[in-house]
Specification:
Elements (H helix, E strand, L loop, with lengths): L1 H14 L1 E2 L5 E2 L3 H8 L11 E4 L2 E10 L8 E6 L2 E2 L6 E5 L2 E9 L12 E7 L2
Antiparallel strand pairs: 1-2, 3-4, 3-6, 4-9, 5-7, 7-8, 8-9
Length: 124
């Protein structure tokens, strides 16, 4: 509990702007996005993908503009997936267990959804 409070206070301090006038500005939505980390969405339980006979469970959604695209290598196509979109499968340097798929964002303004990497971990 104390660690969470300390992290929350650190995040709030990092977002605030203490001017010479002594007033602290509240963080903007843009500041909040930059502090929130790479996660881009909620995970629906029991979402699976099959690649080369192995089943993977969706474990994370990463905001693509916060990832180094050069770390991803195309390795094939999923034969089944519980999500819509491109079923091209990638691996990521340094993550030998998981596979990834890319989702092209859409919309603009307040309703925009960012490009995202879906991380799938072995279901076993």
């Amino acid at each position: 509990m104390i660690a969470l409070l300390a992290i929350g206070m650190t995040g709030a301090a990092a977002c605030g702007d203490d001017d010479d006038d002594g007033a602290t500005q509240q963080p903007t939505a843009e500041d909040q996005d930059s502090v929130a980390g790479p996660g881009a969405g909620a995970i629906v339980p029991n979402t699976f993908l099959t690649h080369e006979g192995a089943q993977y469970r969706l474990s994370d959604i990463l905001q693509a503009d916060l990832e180094d695209e050069s770390q991803f290598s195309e390795v094939g196509e999923a034969t089944e997936a519980d999500v819509d979109g491109d079923l091209t499968v990638f691996t990521k340097d340094g993550d030998a267990e998981s596979v990834y798929t890319f989702w092209q964002g859409s919309g603009s303004g307040d309703t925009a959804t960012p490009d995202s990497w879906y991380r799938w971990e072995p279901a076993d």
